[in-house]
Design a protein that fits this description.
By secondary structure, the chain is α+β, with helices and mostly antiparallel strands. The protein has helices spanning 9-18, 42-52, 123-136, 156-161, 179-184, 186-197, 224-244, 295-307, 312-315, 368-385, 410-418, 421-427, 429-448, 452-458; strands at residues 23-29, 35-41, 54-57, 84-89, 95-96, 103-112, 140-152, 203-208, 214-219, 222-223, 248-250, 264-271, 337-339, 346-349, 356-359.
Length: 462
């Protein structure tokens, strides 16, 4: 683990006492994977919050992105009065927020207000339960997020005033791997790299991506919850750093019809408790490579292939998510596994201890806690049932119309998720019903709203 920027409670006490830390950003992830919480004065945090936690309204786990309380949840409602939950600091997450003035940040677990019981529908707890299942089998999962975004020469307020039309991107041409173009964006992208890395979130590199104004910053891999925490802290920091420079970034899956989508490529590997790879062995190598997969690896991939369509609601949680799945755009439309092939949903990469599977289906809008939980549940099911993934696919996945397809819409994905026996067995009825209610509320709001597309087509000519 990178120690740069990490804190423990004793160090926080010293920094609060000497004034180098004044504020503790105390947060937990909501259903979107956005961080909710409070900016707490350091002295008060140490006196009152460090021991007993922070109180927050439980509607934060049952509202939409506009913060509108949503009907239909069993967890909380107007009938129950929308009471409090307790957010208990996870001290392993305490770090400096280097992009903010004299600020630390800590991620919390969501517990019931009156009992020391984790709230089952909280995303961080959903992932933790899958990790507990893995640990019971001697498996330590590791993940890494490759997260893409667009950089705009617009403030967030300015973009809203324009109704998100005619926005100016940071570049006018495709800048995939383009070092010159990347240099023009370096005042902002470089600041994100440096300040995120200084905040205990190890950064590997940044690069231009496959559309004008699109970038990717890769974070160092880590174990499950730690990696998901890094992911959401990085997203928050990237937005705030861009805003500090009069710019904005967007992680939405498909910001514009004519631009590439924002992907979240998730790399997953398994080790044992001593750190030895459970994916790489001494057996037969993949054709043309040095990668020698174990049966555990094959079965894990088999589970992912088996359940990818059932889990698409977690990988693509919004109506906009499905507009990213366009052939020949590096966003997968077909579900298959292949070695170092970017045209399918699951790309096998690396060899030796670095052998891993990359899931290319999620978008930049996905909640990492739920994505990781879904991938892990599927892989563990495959290992338990010894699921055969079949032969490696070779060729152009976009042209292989006989392969299973990623769902076309959120409505289709919700139906598959809701009726899946695997999903209900892996996550439990309470979690499934909560996630389905969340998705259906998002879908219902979209279906209610009249769009610019409809006005442009029908205002005059119908």
């Amino acid at each position: 683990m990178n120690d740069i920027g990490r804190l423990d409670l004793d160090t926080l006490r010293r920094k609060v006492a000497d004034g180098s830390i004044e504020t503790v950003l105390t947060v937990f992830p909501d259903m979107y994977g956005s961080l909710m919480g409070k900016r707490i004065v350091g002295r008060y945090f140490l006196e009152e919050v460090a021991g007993g936690g922070m109180h927050a309204c439980d509607y934060l786990l049952a509202s939409d992105i506009e913060m509108e309380p949503t009907a239909g949840y069993a967890f909380t409602s107007w009938e129950t009065g929308y009471g409090d939950l307790r957010a208990i600091p996870d001290w392993t997450t305490l770090r400096e927020a280097a992009w903010l003035d004299r600020t630390a940040i800590v991620v919390c677990d969501a517990l019931e207000e009156e009992r020391d019981v984790p709230i089952s529908v909280a995303p961080r707890n959903i992932l933790k339960r899958q990790l507990e299942k893995a640990a019971a089998s001697g498996i330590v999962p590791h993940f890494a997020s490759e997260l893409e975004f667009f950089l705009f020469k617009e403030t967030y307020a300015g973009a809203r005033e324009k109704n998100y039309h005619d926005l100016e991107l940071s570049q006018s041409y495709n800048e995939d791997y383009h070092v010159l173009s990347g240099g023009f964006a370096e005042p902002i992208i470089g600041a994100i790299r440096r300040l995120v890395d200084a905040s205990g979130v190890p950064v590997e590199f940044s690069k231009g991506e496959a559309s004008a104004g699109q970038h990717e910053i890769n974070l160092r891999y880590a174990q499950g919850v730690e990696m998901a925490d890094r992911h959401v802290i990085y997203k928050l920091a990237a937005k705030e750093i861009a805003a500090q420079q009069g710019a904005s970034v967007s992680f939405m899956a498909k910001w514009h019809t004519d631009s590439a989508g924002n992907s979240l490529h998730v790399h997953m590997s398994f080790t044992d408790e001593d750190g030895a790879s459970l994916f790489s062995g001494e057996g037969e190598a993949f054709p043309g490579s040095e990668a020698r997969p174990t049966e555990t690896f094959r079965h894990a991939v088999g589970g992912l292939l088996d359940h990818a369509r059932e889990l698409s609601m977690l990988f693509a949680p919004n109506v906009n998510s499905y507009k990213r799945y366009v052939d020949d755009t590096f966003a997968p439309t077909r579900i298959a596994w292949s070695y170092d092939n970017r045209t399918v949903g699951f790309r096998v990469v690396g060899h030796g201890p670095g052998l891993r599977v990359e899931c290319r289906i999620p978008g930049g809008d996905a909640n990492p806690y739920l994505v990781y939980a879904g991938m892990l549940a599927a892989a563990l099911d495959g290992v338990q049932r010894k699921t055969d993934p079949g032969p490696l696919f070779e060729g152009n996945g976009y042209a292989a119309k006989d392969l299973p397809r990623v769902p076309h819409t959120l409505a289709e994905a919700v139906e598959i998720f809701e009726t899946s026996d695997f999903v209900r067995g892996a996550f439990g009825e309470e979690v499934v019903e909560h996630l389905v209610c969340f998705a259906r509320a998002e879908l219902a709001e979209y279906q209610r709203v009249v769009t610019d597309f409809e006005r442009a087509r029908f205002f005059e000519r119908i």
